[in-house]
Structures are given as C-alpha cells and as structure tokens.
Amino acid sequence: MYKLYYADGSASMGVRVLLEEIGVPYELLDTSIDRDIPRPAQQLAVNPNGWVPVLLWDGGAMYEAAAITVYLCDRHPEAVLAPAVDAAERGVFLQTLVYFSNTVQTAYQQTYYPDRFVEDAALQDDAARRGCRRLRESWGVIDAQIGDGPWVLGETFSAADIYLYMLTTWLSEAKAHPKLGAFPNVARIAGAVAERESVRTVYGG
C-alpha cells in the first residue's frame, strides 16, 4: 500500500488522482501547506523542505510531484499513463512534466509566496506581478505545444494531462492570474480531465 502525505490545494492532489487512475490501495496522511503549522516528523525525514507530496511505500520514499508521477507511471505500466521508455512520445512527456514543475509551478510560487523571491518586502508586489506575467508566458507555451490535439501527447491520455489539470486549479482571479480561457487548448484538456471519475473523487464535482 502506498502512503501519501496529503493536503488539499497542493500538488499532492494530482498524485492522488494518479493513484486512483492506477487503482492501487493507498492511505492519505494528513499534513498542511500552512507554513505556521508544524509538519509530521516522518514527512520532514523524507523532505526536509516540508512540502508535499511525499509518497511512501514498502522499502521506499520520495518527494517532488513530477518525479513521483514518472515513478508511478513506470512502476505501473498496466495503467498506460505514460509512454514506454523507448516510445517516440516519451521525450515530450518528460519535457512537459519538467516544464510544469520547473517553470509553471515556479511562476505560481512567485505569485503565492513572493517573499521567497525577494529580500526586500517592498519588492514583493513586483515579484508577484512578474510571476503573473510568467504564468501567462508559460501557459502560452503549453497551449501552443498542445495545438489541436485532444491530449497533451496527442491522441493518448496520460499523466501529463492530470498534471495540467492540477495546475489549472491553482489559477486565481484574486492573484491577478490570467484566465484559463486565455489558453483554449489548455482549457479544453482541463475540461476533459475534470470529467474523469478519478478527478471527481479527488476534487469533487
């Protein structure tokens, strides 16, 4: 059985959707993304940063949502959530996950936690505004990459579509983020993913 340190509104939700899609038993371990709430000792032992997701299984543990995504897809190939290692689409799959993690998520962090990016508190608003611009730029890159295809990888649904959906749920008018409708290809895929039973289980609806 997998164990997942989990908090609503975090990237652990995307990992939980993957576990639902794979159909394996798992246990949710409550934690928080509130920086003022102490983290469980076992969570910190795996990820000293205190972030989620953290995934545990017999004989192993890891953190970072993109890494966990690749690991679960490769460990459970029967779920067909990622191209095989030697498949032509494998490069785009890995490229997109890393771009989501390194670029899109970093832009979100800059808007939600601008204090992490500047020493001077007076510059936090500037940092947040730059994060919003970067969100528009990076989502634009993904929208163009998708093109007219029904899924991120074209004709085949994958974990990259789940990751995309998770990231779209973080868009916030209150943070002056761009609207999802500004990226029609992204919006189309997000809408399709939202209808999956796994996503309804985790996100409601």
Quick take:
The chain is α+β, with helices and mostly antiparallel strands and 205 residues long. It has helices spanning 12-22, 41-46, 65-75, 90-112, 124-146, 159-168, 184-194, 197-203; strands at 2-6, 26-30, 54-57, 60-63. It contains eight helices and four strands.
Describe this entry's structure for a reader.
This protein has a four-stranded mixed β-sheet, with helices on one face. Helix 6 (159-168) packs across helix 7. It is α+β, with helices and mostly antiparallel strands. The protein is 50% helix and 9% strand. Helix 1 (12-22) links the parallel strand 1 and strand 2 (26-30). The longest helix has 23 residues, at 90-112.
Instruction: Give the strand tally.
Output: 4
Strand order of the largest sheet: 2-1-3-4
Return residue spans where pLDDT drops below 50 for at least 5 consecutive residues: none
| Element string (H = helix, E = strand) | EHEHEEHHHHHH
Helical coverage, percent range: 40-55%
Give the biggest beta sheet: 4 strands, mixed
Mean pLDDT: 96
Strand content: 5-15%
Rg value: 17 Å
Question: Which descriptor suits the 3D outline?
Answer: globular
Termini, distance in Å? 27 Å
By secondary-structure content and strand pairing, the structural class works out as alpha+beta
Number of helices in the DSSP assignment: 8
Present the secondary structure layout.
Elements: E1 2-6, H1 12-22, E2 26-30, H2 41-46, E3 54-57, E4 60-63, H3 65-75, H4 90-112, H5 124-146, H6 159-168, H7 184-194, H8 197-203
Parallel strand pairs: 1-2
Antiparallel strand pairs: 1-3, 3-4
Helix pairs in contact: 1-3, 1-6, 1-8, 4-5, 4-6, 6-7
